[in-house]
Design brief:
Elements lengths: L2 E6 L3 H12 L4 E7 L2 H10 L4 E4 L8 H11 L4 E6 L4 H9 L4 E4 L4 H12 L2
Parallel strand pairs: 1-2, 1-3, 3-4, 4-5
Helix pairs in contact: 2-3
Length: 122
Amino acid sequence: MTVKILIADDQVLLSRALSTILGSQPDLEVVATVHDGQVAVDTVAHTPVDLVLMDVRMPGMDGISATRAMAQRFPMVKVLVLTTYDEDDYAFGALEVGASGFLLKDVRAAQLAQAVRAVAQG
């Protein structure tokens, strides 16, 4: 099974790096990269996605609000929040609105791929 991933992060360079890291895995496929939470929600509405790798702070709709919207509209799509903010409020906030996991951006590439697989499998 190939996990189809949407990356939602407003840092273009980081989005490209994440796409390269995850896309190099034979069982992971990055199907889209967006830079705004609302665009992420809109993209999931018309693109087959299994998992969204979601930043917390983005212009337009933030990642917590986008996660909430996805959990309500697309409950089968998993959200893994990835952020630089090591604060409990972000982690608990994301999990409360429907995220399946929470990672800091200093995670190692192998751990990131492993977390994506674990969340995608439930």
